[in-house]
Design brief:
Ribosomal Protein L22, Chain A, globular, 2 domains, alpha+beta, single chain, 22% helix, 33% strand
Amino acid sequence: MGVEVWTAQPQRLGCDACADLAAVLDADERERASRLQFEADRRAFLVSHAMRRIALGLVLATDPHELRFTLGAQGQPILLHANAAGLSFSLSRSRDMVAFALCAGGPVGIDVEAVRDGVDVSLLAPYMELPGAHEGSGLEDFYVRWTALEAYWKAQGLGLSRTHPRIALHDVGDSSMEVRIGGARRPSGLFAVRLPAPATHVLSVVCRKVDSVRIVELEKLAPPPAAGPDRAFAGSNDGSCLAAGAPRIFSS
């Protein structure tokens, strides 16, 4: 397989869909979700972690609920499975959009960010070599670069840190940028690809150069059934329900 990216907008999933997703989580994931204060955050956590299990379960022909994870030295999740060697994966979530990427042919990282006005674009400077004309660049450019930055270090199994060398992004067309390292701008062998997302979000994946990214999108197909407390999904304290959803799969 190449690169596969799963996305979801949690607020568009109905009660039945959310209950089914929550059922694949383990006790630790459910407990972590329950500690989140806001229902929107709990829902995003549940949907994203269930999506990770389902995607990996399909690739490994394993019951998603049976998958087990541990944490690496840098805090990154590691899948404990006999056939997981060489399989890279990455998870990102905001309240209104979550994303998961996996790849059997090299490192992969993904990041999704909600676009907010008033962001300080100078936040990029400690982490990234910027083109000379960048000072006047707009909000969208900031988020494209920020998601690429986050996704790159996730692909390295690391978090964002000022101790890392700065990266540079070289536009190669077709919504892709080559990631280069340090002042010498040494090629990293990885590329940042901007993926389709709602206008309120920016989504980027970093991987080795590929011709296409297969996207699995969960979205609304039908109105929800009547809602009630008995239809709430695990981790929801208020029994809230949103539009019912079902998967749609396509390639870009």
